[in-house]
Specification:
77% of the residues lie in helices and 0% in strands. The chain has 133 residues and is mostly helical.
Length: 133
Amino acid sequence: MFGMGFSEMLIILVIAILFLGPDKLPSAMVDIAKFFRSMKKTIGTLKDSIEEEMNVSEIKKEALSYKKELLGASEELNRVTDMTKVGEAMSKIGDDILSEAEKSPTPKAAPIQEKITFEKKPKPISKEEKTDV
């Protein structure tokens, strides 16, 4: 215990008997045992609290990394969905189209508009049907 051998502890015991005397020695031994027990309990509590603090710091680090990740994703989402930038881009595209239209001397033909209906179109008669009739 404490790096001491049996002979060293025996010498300490003899010195304690000489100084304290046989009547005070048992109470001194009880006080020393209580002291060592309380020290052991205090060291155990300190060890547990240090381990808890280390675990809390790891949890804090993990939470901060998640927070950074979420903030980055939020900024990316805001950047992608920012309507003012979309409006600016659309305006720029429109300006480009208008400037090209002004540069070209010939007017472009209007697109052909097709009427959309839900009526059945007549089926064209094929050559085989014509010959059968």
